[in-house]
């Protein structure tokens, strides 16, 4: 039996990864205690994803409602399957920049200490497996805001002569800057994943994601920008833009493109403790004002939004990922979804569901 362990298995990336590997015949051990509902309330509940996986794959999907902060329970799972585990995809996290400041201890314990529990269980019981961690571009703190940016009509853009014009590379500094507490806890986990790979010679990988999106996300105001924006347009919910004139740019990558990148690593693990930036890159990026235009065009509805001039602390003004390093190591991988396709899918697949829940 080949086992894939997926933390946050009912979340956006976790559920996409679970279904992908279940469809390939693997046994998936899902670890998810629905903390997203605790963080953001009922609208962020991911239990529907868990139910879907359990009903569609009753034999091969085994769910554990375990908190990754619980060292003993995490170790028990790994001890049971040991070398049957071939892949660990770690997506469980406290994911919000804003929420972290309300409870820094919980944020750090989940993101950093929870990751340490998983790494140590992996090292002790399943060291031949591949360990992939969904990190974040927030590990770079506010360094991207020091780039030479120019204000355009609906977005900020970087100087076309700058080395990062085609995207921010992995050599950007992560030290001596303002991160947000969320950025710090994720950076701590990121460095732990690297260290376990380099020190113990294990196949560990950090994917520093941009905006991860897709129709399966339970988007809320504090997390899940594209999904939540589309929901606001469709359900006539007021939306608030915070700072930077709404021209701040995000690169957006679909969950399926993330999973295909993870699978490339799993099929051909080349390095130990490697880091890749992973986002939409130049193929799929958008400002908030541009995203509003797209959402209104797709839905045929107008968004009610307000503007607050106070930006979120440490918020990126312009962030586009360079995909060059990943594509060099895995030349067969490429982005399949651009921002238009992502938003159209969110609209199409959630139109009926969202109306039923309001």
Q: What is the 3D form?
A: globular
Predict the CATH topology.
Answer: Rossmann fold
- Strand adjacency order, main sheet: 3-2-1-4-5-8-12
Average pLDDT for all residues: 95
Say how many strands there are: 14
Give a short account of the largest sheet.
Answer: 7 strands, parallel
Helix content class: 40-55%
Would you mind describing this structure in some detail?
- The longest helix has 22 residues, at 104-125.
- The radius of gyration is 19 Å and the shape is globular.
- The chain has helices at 12-23, 35-40, 47-56, 71-81, 97-100, 104-125, 181-200, 225-235, 255-267, 288-299, 324-329, 339-356; strands at 3-7, 27-31, 61-64, 85-90, 130-136, 149-151, 156-158, 203-209, 211-213, 239-242, 249-254, 274-278, 285-287, 305-308.
- By secondary structure, it is α/β, with parallel strands linked by helices.
- The protein has a single domain (3-356), classed as NAD(P)-binding Rossmann-like Domain (Rossmann fold), CATH 3.40.50.
- α4 packs parallel to α6 (104-125).
Descriptive terms for the model:
3-stranded mixed beta sheet, alpha/beta, 18% strand, Rossmann fold
Give a short summary of the structure:
With 358 residues, the chain is α/β, with parallel strands linked by helices. The protein has helices at residues 12-23, 35-40, 47-56, 71-81, 97-100, 104-125, 181-200, 225-235, 255-267, 288-299, 324-329, 339-356; strands at residues 3-7, 27-31, 61-64, 85-90, 130-136, 149-151, 156-158, 203-209, 211-213, 239-242, 249-254, 274-278, 285-287, 305-308.
């Amino acid at each position: 039996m080949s086992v894939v362990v997926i933390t946050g298995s009912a979340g956006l990336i976790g559920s996409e990864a679970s279904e992908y590997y279940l469809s390939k015949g693997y046994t998936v051990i899902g670890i998810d205690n629905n903390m997203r509902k605790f963080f953001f309330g009922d609208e962020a509940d991911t239990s529907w994803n868990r139910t879907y996986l359990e009903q569609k794959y009753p034999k091969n999907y085994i769910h554990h409602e375990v908190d990754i902060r619980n060292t003993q329970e995490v170790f028990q799972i790994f001890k049971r399957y040991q070398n049957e585990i071939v892949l660990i995809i770690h997506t469980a996290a406290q994911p919000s920049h804003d929420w972290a400041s309300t409870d820094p201890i919980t944020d750090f314990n989940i993101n950093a200490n929870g990751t340490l529990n998983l790494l140590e269980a992996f090292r002790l019981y399943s060291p031949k497996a591949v360990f992939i961690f969904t990190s974040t571009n927030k590990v770079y703190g506010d360094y991207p805001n020091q780039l030479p940016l120019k204000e355009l009509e609906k977005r900020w853009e970087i100087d076309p002569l700058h080395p990062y014009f085609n995207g921010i590379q992995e050599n950007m500094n992560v030290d001596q800057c303002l991160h947000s507490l969320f950025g710090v806890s994720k950076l701590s986990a990121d460095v732990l994943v690297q260290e376990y790979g380099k020190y113990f010679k294990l196949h560990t990988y950090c994917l520093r994601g941009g905006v991860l999106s897709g129709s399966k996300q339970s988007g809320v105001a504090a997390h899940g920008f594209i999904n939540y924006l589309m929901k606001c347009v469709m359900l006539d919910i007021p939306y608030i833009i915070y700072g930077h004139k709404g021209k701040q740019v995000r690169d957006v990558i679909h969950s399926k493109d993330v999973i295909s990148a993870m699978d490339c690593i799993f099929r051909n693990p080349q390095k130990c403790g490697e880091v890749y930036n992973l986002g939409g890159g130049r193929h799929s990026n958008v400002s908030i004002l541009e995203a509003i235009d797209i959402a209104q065009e797709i839905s045929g509805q107008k968004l009610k939004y307000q503007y607050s001039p106070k930006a979120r602390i440490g918020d990126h003004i312009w962030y586009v990922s360079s995909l060059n390093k990943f594509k060099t190591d895995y030349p067969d991988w490429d982005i399949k979804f651009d921002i238009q396709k992502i938003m159209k899918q969110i609209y199409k697949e959630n139109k009926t569901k969202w109306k039923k829940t309001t």
